[in-house]
Write a structure and sequence with these properties.
Elements (H helix, E strand, L loop, with lengths): L5 E9 L2 E9 L2 E5 L2 E3 L6 H13 L2 E12 L5 E11 L9 H4 L6 E8 L12 H13 L6 E4 L2
Parallel strand pairs: 1-6, 5-8
Antiparallel strand pairs: 1-2, 1-4, 2-3, 2-7, 5-6
């Protein structure tokens, strides 16, 4: 049995664009929300800041938790709305993503226009994508929204 994984991820919007990780794997091309596993002794907020620096070379500050996504396997993903502070998206050579990259497993952090978000391929877990598109149009709920994978 697999141990549940807890991650922290960040939604960063700046100049009508969202900062995402573009991924290519055998038979798959999609975008995901940057973030990763919460390390022992680390808060979810600290994880988001660390992961953004590792994965995108961009500095961010967490603003507030907007979604908690639970999976059938018991994984919990804390998804924060973040403020972009500085940096140009690039994959650091010593990042885990760069180290494990090969022609069949590639990563590229980049800005995606918000207008492209609804049609972006397998961007993120479907319930998060649906809710994010809705919240960008109507505003984020004042409380944390709990979501489950399909």
């Amino acid at each position: 049995m697999e141990i549940p994984r807890h991650t922290a991820r960040g939604i960063v919007i700046h100049d009508q664009r969202i900062l995402l990780m573009e991924r290519w794997r055998p038979g798959h091309h999609y975008f995901s929300i940057p973030g990763g596993g919460i390390e022992p002794g680390e808060t979810p907020q600290q994880t988001v800041v660390r992961e953004f620096m590792e994965e995108t070379a961009c500095e961010v500050r967490t603003e507030r938790l907007v979604y908690l996504l639970e999976t059938a396997e018991g994984n919990c993903h804390h998804i924060f709305l973040c403020r972009y502070l500085r940096g140009e998206p690039r994959l650091a050579a010593d990042s885990p993503e760069a180290i494990r990259a090969d022609p069949d497993n590639r990563f590229k952090p980049d800005w995606l226009p918000l207008s492209d978000l609804p049609e972006a391929p397998a961007i993120i877990w479907k319930p998060v994508l649906r809710r994010l598109v809705e919240d960008l149009q109507n505003g984020f709920a004042p409380d944390v929204v709990s979501l489950r994978t399909e």
